[in-house]
Hints:
This protein has about 500 residues and is α/β, with parallel strands linked by helices. The protein folds into two domains: about 1-130 and about 165-255 and about 370-395 and about 445-505, FAD/NAD(P)-binding domain (3-Layer(bba) Sandwich), CATH 3.50.50; about 140-160 and about 260-365 and about 395-435. About 25% of the residues lie in helices and about 20% in strands.
Amino acid sequence: MILDFAETGSDALAGRRFDVCIVGAGPAGITIARALSRDLSVLLLEAGGFELSAESQQIYQGSISGRGYYDLDTARLRYFGGTSNHWGGRCQALDAFDFEAHPYVPHSGWPIGKQDLDPYLGQAARIVDLDLVEPEPPAFRSQLDQALATGGFAHPFTFHWSPPTVFGEKFRMEIEQSANILCLLHANLTDIVLSESGSAVTDVEITGYELARTKVPVRRLVIAAGGMENPRILLNCNRQMKAGLGNQHDLVGRFFAEHFLHRCGWLVLEDDFGEAVSAAFPPGTGVRPRKLYYAANRGFALQREVLDFVVTVVPRSKFRDSNNSFSQRLRHAICAPDWLSESFDFTFDDGAPTCYDGFFIVEAEQAPNRDSRITLNGERDQFGWCRLNLDWRALPIDKRTAAVAATEFATRFAEHNLGRVRVKDWLLADDSAVPPLSDDVAASCHHMGTTRMADDPRRGVVDRNCRVHGISNLYVAGSSVFPTVGFANPTFSIVQMSLRLADHLNGG
């Protein structure tokens, strides 16, 4: 059942006590609600409605310090379906490497492994409507595969794509018809009430936009509001615990991580390889070049002490517009002034200099960084809660990963006579800092790590079952629990983790 708290007020909740309350109707919250036993009464709280509204979205406003970032109220969505309302649909499970602790990456490693999420692969794929059939690779790819396999550098990799599935649209009718789920729209969580000892949640306070408030008793509570809002909720619920819930070791909000997307350089293809690329995408057929992905080999990453990454190779859609030979185009590329090299857009549409035949990107995880964090900034929203401040920071290994990946790719590309690569100057500079966000460096709006998972409460906010340390019935869901984040988009892993959490709650 779905009701609007603005219309029903507390009447729909009078005299009820719910087995599980879930805060946030995004991919995590909806997945958990659907996977819970029909014998459990479930309260699903959504702070927005069915559509984007300024009233709800403005609650996500906040401040930014440290590295520059996108406006916080545009980097996430606060209505039914959550950020699935604007995700791109790219899916991939985390690799075993991503769960391991690495000696050169402080604070790395999960208390669980890939084998703990693998049982949920098929179910998660059905939820996000994945087509698991891999496309036939273009004929020229074998040459690129061989080149990048040299020295154990990287292997060909396939992302799978959801349509993308918009959770609010796909599962709305099912939740409306559910006998055990009550979803309340326009219902803002404004307090979490603990027992006298502080060891368990007893009630949640819900407030509407007209500031009508009510308290509801719950047996278990799951916070599933996203990688920025999860820590904000825990920090704001400080009436009974001054530092906030789960924050006894000052870890809530720390280790904020993103996925870096680096535009690393351009390609000039040797004549023979260029002809092979052109043959795969003949003019007039409407067949456009597609991105080719190469993931770091585990041994290479360990040997070079870098983070997990994937190299994306994008052939130019109008290769060989001119009759210039490889040597002529290479000379043009070498001699081209910087302003000309920078004058074309990210997708190589019309206007790109004819000397370039493609470009490549390195997408990489961000290393755990205790000083990269979310805090409260003191400015209050209409419900009296402090807005958040994002102090996003990067470490030298974040740049080194991109630089190593780019230079190794360029070396193998040239050694195998596929062409030459012009690597961006910032990657070759001695400076260890990742540049600010720009055309060359982007973030993916993947908010992770802020309520990280660890068996030891001195190292994490939640345990291996996503339960907040020290509070017996409070859980956190979503990518905020990721201790290390890999390079894969997080939504698919969020769904797997949510199914696993639902199984745990069903067993309790």
